[in-house]
Fold:
Amino acid sequence: MSFENLNLIEPILRALKAEGYTTPTPIQEQAIPYILQHRDLLGCAQTGTGKTAAFAIPILQLLFQDKLKHKEQKSIKALILTPTRELAIQISESFTAYGKHTGLKNLVIFGGVSQGPQVDALRRGVDILIATPGRLLDLMNQRFVHLDQIKMLILDEADRMLDMGFVNDVKKVIAKVPANRQTLFFSATMPNEIQSLADSILQKPAKVEVAPVSSTADTIQQSLYYVSKGDKRLLLNHILKDKEIKTALVFTRTKHGADKVVKDLTRAGITAEAIHGNKSQNARQRALTNFKNRTTRVLIATDIAARGIDIDELTHVINYEIPNIPETYVHRIGRTGRAGASGVALTFCDGEEEIDYLKDIHKLIAKEIPVEQGHPYPLSYEAMTEKMMSKAKNAPKKSGGSAGGRHGGGTKRPGAGGRPAGHRGGGSGGSGNSRGGASGMSGASRSSSGRR
Structure:
C-alpha cells in the first residue's frame, strides 16, 4: 500500500513525497478513505501511530476540492481542538507541510502569549483553525472567532482533554458549531465520559482502532535499571556520555525534578533544557525548537508538557522517574520508535519507592521489561530485596517482592546481546566505581529515521 493507492490529489502527493512519506501507517491507511467519503470517524489510537497525518491529509484534500468549486471569501472551514499548546503547534506544522501546494491557510491559537498576532491573522482569513479550548473560547467571546461556516470538527487527544479538565469548554465550543458537519474524534483511551461525548456528537461513525494503549511498539527496545534514587543522576550522566545518543527525552514526575535534572546535566557539560507548566509559553517553545534542531541534546519534561511532542529521529526516551499511572509509561516511550522507526526506552527504578509503579506497568503491558545489570551504579538484587523487606516491615499492609522476578540480564533481542541499544563501553566498568563491579555497556545502535 502506498499513498498513491489512497486516491489523494497531486498537490498533496507532491508534498508527502517532499516530506519523505512513501507508505501510510495502519491508521492512515484505514482512516483516510473514510474521511474522504465525508463520514464521521471514531479513532482509538495512541500517540506515535501517525494519527495527525491520518486526519490532516484528507481534511486538506476535501477543503482544496471545495475551494475549487466555491470561490467564496475566506472563513474557517475546519476546526481542530487539542489539549496542549505544543500539540497544537505540531499539528499546525503538519498542515503547513502537507498543504503547501494547496493554497489553504491554517492558524494555531493558544493561551500564554499575546492574542494580538492571533487576532490579526484571523482578520486576514484562515481556512483551518487549530486551537486549545481556553484561548478559543476567549476569542469567541470577544467575537474574533466565528464558527458558523465550520464544515469539519476534529477533537484530538480527547482523553487528555478530559484529564486536563477541558471537557466542559469543549462542549461549549461544539454548541457553536453547525450541526451539519463532519466530525472526527480521536482518543487513545475511551473512558465512559469520553465514550458518552463521542456518542453525542458523532453520526453513524466509521470506527478505526490501532495499537491500544496497553501495547508498546515492537520497534522500541526497552530496558530496566535498578538504581537507588541517589544514584540516578550519576547513571544518567554515565549513559549520556555515549555520543551515539543524539537526542534523549527524559521524563520526571514533577516540575521541580525536571529543573533539578537540568542543573545536574548542565554541571556535567551536557546541553539540556526543561519543559513544564511553570515555564512561559515562549520558553517552552524555545526549548522545543532547540531540541528539534539539536542545539539542545537532552530535553527534560513532565508528562502533560510532553504530550504531543513529535520529534523526528528521537533515539532515546529515559524514564528518570517511573510514572504512577501505568498508561503514562506507554505514552512516554511512544515518543520514540514512531511510525516504524526503531528506538530505545530506558527506565530507572528505585526498589524502595517505585516498585509498585513498575508492577502496574508490567501488568498493563503483559510482559516484564528486561533488566540491565551491567552498569556502574546497580542497586543489586540483594540490596533491593533488603530495602523492600524493610519497607514491608515498616508498613505491614504493603507486601514485598521483586519487580517481576529476577531477570539476570533480561530477554535477549537479535543483535543486542541482551543489553539495551544505544550504549558503547570498553568492557572495563565505565567509571570504575567499585559498588557494582559492573562490566561496561555494550551494543551501540542507531535509531533509524522516523516520521510523524
Remarks:
- The first strand starts at residue 41 and ends at 45.
- Confidence is low (pLDDT under 50) at residues 396-452.
